[in-house]
């Protein structure tokens, strides 16, 4: 863009008249002042030693140090599986578009830059070579997964579906593998939050869809039970349900027959989120014109096929933003487990300030800013993938 074009753009958009010019200069001054304060805190005045010395607690809690290779292996498998699935179902790869390594690097950078920034921040805190080796292994698995996904992208749908099923089974085995090093109730840090959020999302989505369909059912019993389950769950605060799952069940069942705290929290998060997912999906079902169902019925399709192949896909596509928003809320709600004694990220940030080397030094901002960065990266990644899915499906376009 030439200097003349820049001047024209500035005059039209920022300095159209005296009022716009004053607002522009005032906004630029406030933004610059905020940016200076943030950079000064991050680079100069912030005392990040408390994060550097307790980085392991933030990331995986009390997980045994001698078993950290299990987490490294899990990270590599997750990187491999993620890029394999995305590449396998990518339109470009399925169309046979050849992309150079440089192009693939650019796409990964644009798509996953929040995760890349987080990785750089975390590596800046480490003082040993182990995390660098783990990061290099994870990056290698990213590219290996992308190459395998590209090879599978041209395979029949049945083979790709089988690959997804095998992947899901592998994830279950991987969780058992991690739990073999330390039980779920003793997990902590970001690893615990990610596990709770992922389990809640995976389990609540199909349950929420079933509740939404049940609430729209013409059978009174199914409709009444679905409405009762949704309204009762949505009417109780999540924090109350978490406390009841931890403390209240002990009054009705012996402790030796109750599952661990993490399992009970997963059940609560699943039921609570499913109730909200059901209402979101119900709104999507109502947005599909009745004429499509009537036309499908006229062609001889059964109600089950009409719902599964015509109504539900459109309904889910229409409510992607709301669904992802609910899942982001679920991810942030995992911090509530600190009230029942689980060591999540917020609990770590509070407990390390009581260490003898940092007690009474007022390092609240440093610990909470770092905890906020971890949750922002997770939420931002989910939001970006949601917008990408909307563009791919053409949501909101006519």
Reconstruct the topology from this structure:
Blueprint: H1 3-13, H2 18-45, H3 49-53, H4 55-60, H5 68-88, H6 91-94, H7 101-125, H8 130-153, H9 157-181, H10 189-215, H11 220-234, H12 238-246, H13 261-287, H14 290-298, H15 303-318, H16 320-333, H17 345-351, H18 364-393
Helix pairs in contact: 5-8, 5-9, 7-18, 10-11, 10-13, 10-16, 10-17, 11-13, 12-13, 13-15, 13-16, 14-15, 16-18, 17-18
Under CATH, the topology of the largest domain is which? Answer: MetI-like fold
Please, what is the average pLDDT? 85
Question: What is the count of structural domains?
Answer: 3
CATH architecture verdict of the largest domain: Orthogonal Bundle
Give the CA-CA distance, first to last residue: 32 Å
**Percent range for β-strand residues:** under 5%
Helical fraction: over 70%
Describe the global form: globular
Radius of gyration: 25 Å
Number of helices: 18
Order of helices and strands: HHHHHHHHHHHHHHHHHH
Say how many strands there are: 0
The stretches of 5 or more residues where confidence is low (pLDDT under 50) are: none
CATH class of the largest domain: Mainly Alpha
Largest sheet: none
Query: What's the name of the CATH homologous superfamily of the largest domain?
Result: MetI-like
Summing up helix and strand content along with how strands pair, one would put the structural category as mainly alpha
């Amino acid at each position: 863009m030439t200097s003349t074009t820049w001047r024209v753009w500035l005059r039209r958009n920022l300095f159209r008249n005296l009022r716009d010019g004053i607002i522009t200069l005032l906004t630029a001054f406030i933004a610059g002042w905020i940016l200076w304060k943030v950079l000064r805190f991050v680079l100069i005045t912030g005392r990040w030693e408390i994060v550097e010395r307790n980085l392991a607690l933030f990331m995986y809690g009390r997980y045994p140090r001698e078993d950290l290779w299990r987490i490294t292996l899990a990270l590599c498998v997750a990187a491999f599986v993620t890029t394999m699935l995305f590449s396998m179902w990518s339109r470009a790869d399925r169309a046979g578009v050849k992309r150079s390594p440089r192009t693939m690097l650019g796409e990964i950078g644009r798509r996953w830059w929040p995760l890349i920034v987080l990785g750089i921040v975390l590596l800046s805190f480490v003082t040993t070579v182990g995390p660098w080796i783990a990061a290099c292994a994870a990056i290698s698995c990213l590219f290996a997964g992308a190459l395998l996904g590209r090879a599978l992208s041209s395979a029949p749908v049945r083979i790709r579906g089988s690959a997804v099923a095998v992947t899901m089974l592998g994830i279950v085995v991987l969780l058992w593998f991690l739990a073999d090093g330390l039980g779920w109730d003793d997990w902590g840090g970001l690893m615990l939050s990610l596990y709770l959020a992922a389990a809640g999302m995976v389990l609540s989505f199909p349950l929420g869809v079933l509740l939404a369909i049940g609430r729209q059912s013409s059978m009174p019993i199914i409709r009444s039970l679905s409405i009762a389950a949704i309204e009762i769950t949505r009417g109780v605060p999540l924090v109350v349900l978490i406390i009841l799952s931890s403390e209240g069940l002990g009054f009705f069942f012996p402790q030796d027959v109750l599952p661990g705290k993490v399992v009970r929290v997963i059940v609560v998060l699943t039921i609570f989120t499913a109730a909200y997912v059901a209402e979101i999906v119900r709104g999507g079902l109502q947005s599909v014109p009745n004429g499509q169902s009537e036309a499908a019925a006229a062609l001889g399709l059964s109600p089950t096929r009409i719902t599964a192949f015509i109504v539900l896909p459109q309904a889910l596509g229409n409510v992607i933003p709301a669904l992802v928003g609910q899942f982001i809320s679920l991810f942030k709600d995992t911090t509530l487990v600190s009230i029942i004694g689980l060591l999540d990220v917020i609990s770590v940030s509070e407990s390390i300030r009581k260490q003898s080397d940092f007690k009474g030094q007022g390092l609240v901002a440093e610990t909470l800013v770092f905890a906020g960065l971890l949750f922002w990266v997770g939420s931002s990644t989910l939001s970006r993938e949601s917008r990408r899915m909307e563009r791919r499906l053409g949501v909101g376009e006519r």
